Structure formats: structure tokens, C-alpha cells
Amino acid sequence: MNKLLIEGGQPLIGELHAAGAKNAVLPILAATLLADEPVTLSNVPQLRDVTTSRALLERLGAQVTLHEPMTLEVDTRSVDKFCAPYDLVKTMRASILVLGPLLARYGYAEVSLPGGCAIGSRPVDQHLRGLRAMGAEIEVDAGYIRACCSGRLRGARLVLDLVTVTGTANVLMAATLAEGTTVIENAAREPEVVDLGDCLVAMGADITGLGTDTVVVRGVPRLHGTHYPVMPDRIETGTYLVAAAITHGQITIHGTRPACLDAVLLKLQEAGAQIDTGSDWIHLDMQGRRPQAVHLRTAPHPGFPTDMQAQFVALNAIAAGVGTITETVFENRFMHVNELQRMGALIRLEGNTAISTGVAQLTGAPVMATDLRASAGLVLAALAARGTTVVDRVYHIDRGYQGIEQRLTQLGASVRRITG
Ligand code: EPU
Question: Is 1 exposed, middle or buried (CB count within 10 Å of its CB: 0-12, 13-18, 19+)?
């Protein structure tokens, strides 16, 4: 099994170009099922989850062609199977995103029920409730969701009980081909949902209100092909900004969208970073200083993203002072805390709050990645620690960070992938 061997203690200094966003490209790949012509996507990140999505589309019968390293063409005209099987869904929960598109375009879908995962129980009741309100008949049996509808789905007024990113994406996609108008209240405002919506509009969908909590979709009979560039990954950008901050370094990230990172940039400034931004770049400079501990609460966008929580727990572990981080989106997203404690961090968990008293120095140790963002937190801690850290179960990180060891090495870190 692959591991990352990291010698800490080097300030990270340099420049990077942001990769395409994982959480935008996954729903957009599912959305290609709605089009009756090929869809070409550029700025597609090279990630394990993209490979899994591609395998899923191919399993359904789609033709997926790689044109350049980051451009994929998906032709779904040959789709003749409608099942997302357990062996794929268990490796990537986002497979649930094919449910809405398959149902809307073909009238039938079967998707293995995603179970809980390391960060929480993660039910999909809101996805199913929304689709049922649009006329789908859905049963959950023997670990599978089976959904069907006769004719087109019907537009409906949906009020989501809570803000759900993939739940909003699923009903949004289904609504594009429904008969009549769908209003999604309490919709997720995440930039990745907006990017999906923009891609659907480029395919001929009629959507207004993207980026607000009320999204209105007027159904159309068909969606056509398009060429769409996937937005940059704000969580990848944020992670590398923290990598520079935690090592007292400086970094410029190009090809990114600073406006999507307001909450994160604010916390980095509170931690003592000097931040400059342009329309598509962010420069962070710690001026060699140790970060100050910060207080934050995760929340749906535009609040502080839960996908940046573990990275800030790592930052607080070595920062000056006491910081508190409260997780409100997922019930069990602090698995990294025990591993950070093994590196010498002083963190106390009180319910869903991690209270850290920053230490001057963490010490390298063997640690275990438990999910994607927890692994990112451990890698950041390792970069700041004295000595060698071996991060096990790196497959988690490969799900969402393109070429992490090359990118960190480019910034001056000592990182090597080893097997065994
Ligand atoms: N929830 C329900 N019922 C539902 C749907 C969600 O109770 O039907 C709950 C969840 O259990 C959770 C909360 O609502 O407590 C928010 O979950 P959400 O549905 O928004 O999460 P998701 O769509 O499954 C996406 C990202 C996650 C990211 C969250 C929150 C993708 C593919 N995944 O997950 O990304 O943490 O939104 O922003 O977009 C990651 O990239 O590491 C990752 C986990």
C-alpha cells in the first residue's frame, strides 16, 4: 500500500497552478448523462475519483475519450445500462450523482445505497424526497435504490430540510429535463453547485438563481452537447495556502478564484498571513512568522468549508495560543485529531469542537489517513513537524489531490511516495 514519507521543517516557497475542482467535475460528469450529444470537459483534474466516475459512466455504456491529459469527451448516446453497482459506489459515494440524471433521461435508475463513511452517517433521504416529489417511484431494497418514472419527471416545489451539496445537484440535474418548473428552496450555494448549473445552462438548461438558496429550473425536452471548462479547486488552493502558512513560507497560486475562498482567506489573515489577490491568483506570505491560533465554525457556503477544517486543525496545532474549531456539517469529522496527538499536538475534543493549545514543534510519527481531508491535515502537520512522518493509506489523498508529492516537492518540501 502506498505511503507518503515526509521530512518536515522546510518553509514551502513557490508557485502553483490550481487543478480543476473534484467536487465540480464529479456532478458535471454525471450531468453528461442528460445530454443527447457528446460533452467535452476541460480542466479535468487527474484524480482517483475521476477515474472511478469514468469507470461508472463506461459501465453504463457511455464512451469516454481522453483527448489531452485534462480533456475528456463523454458520449452517452450508447448508454444501455442503468445501474451504479456496489463495487463502484463503495469506493466513491458521489456515484449517487447518477441517480437524478439516469431517472430524468431514461426513466429508470438503480444505485447502490451509499453507506456511512469515516466522517458520518451521510444519509441520502433529501435526494430521494426531492425526486419522489417530482413523480419518481423509489424503493430501497437489498442495499439498492431503485427509481422509476413513467414519462418525464414533473416540476415541483422542493424545500430541502437541510443544505445538501450533492442533494441539490441531484434534484437540479433531474429538474432540467422535467415537465414544468422546479423550485429548489434551501438549495446549496456552493461554487461547485453553481459550476454544475453553469455547465447545464451551456447544455441548454433553463436555470436561474444559481448561487442563491432558491434555484428555479424550467424543464426543457432535451439537453445538447457542449464544451465546458471545470472551475478551479478551491479546497486544493486552500490546502496549499495552509501548507505555506504552517511552514512559515510563501506561495502564489495561479488560475484560482479568490472570491470562492473569502472565509478561508479571512482566517488565514487572522492567523497572521499577508494575503494579496488578483482576479485569478492568490499570494500568501507568512514573512517567516509562526501563525496565530484561530477560532472558526464550519458551515455551508459562504461559511467556512468543512473540507478545510482538518487543515486548520493542523494549523492551530502549531500556532501561538489557543484556538477552537467547531464542526457543524458532519458529525464525526475529527478522526485526524487522534493522529495529530500522536505527533505531539495538544488538542482536546469537546463534542463537536476541537480546542487546541498550539505547541512550538510537532514531531514526526507514523500516522494513518482516514479520509481525504483528514489526510490533507496530516500531510500539512508533517510538513511542519521535526523529523520523519509516514502517512499511511495515501489512497484517500489520491482521491482529491492531483500529484500531491510532485506539487509539494516543487514548493521545496521533502516528500516521497513509498510502497510497503
Ligand atoms: N445530509 C442528510 N441527508 C441528505 C443529504 C445530506 O442528512 O439527504 C446531511 C449529511 O449527512 C451532512 C450534511 O447533510 O451532515 C451535509 O452533507 P452534503 O449532502 O452537503 O454532503 P455531500 O453532498 O455528501 C459534498 C462534498 C463533500 C463536502 C460536503 C459539504 C462532493 C462529491 N462531496 O458532500 O466533500 O464535505 O459536500 O460541503 O461534492 C470532500 O471533498 O472531501 C468531501 C467530503
Answer: exposed
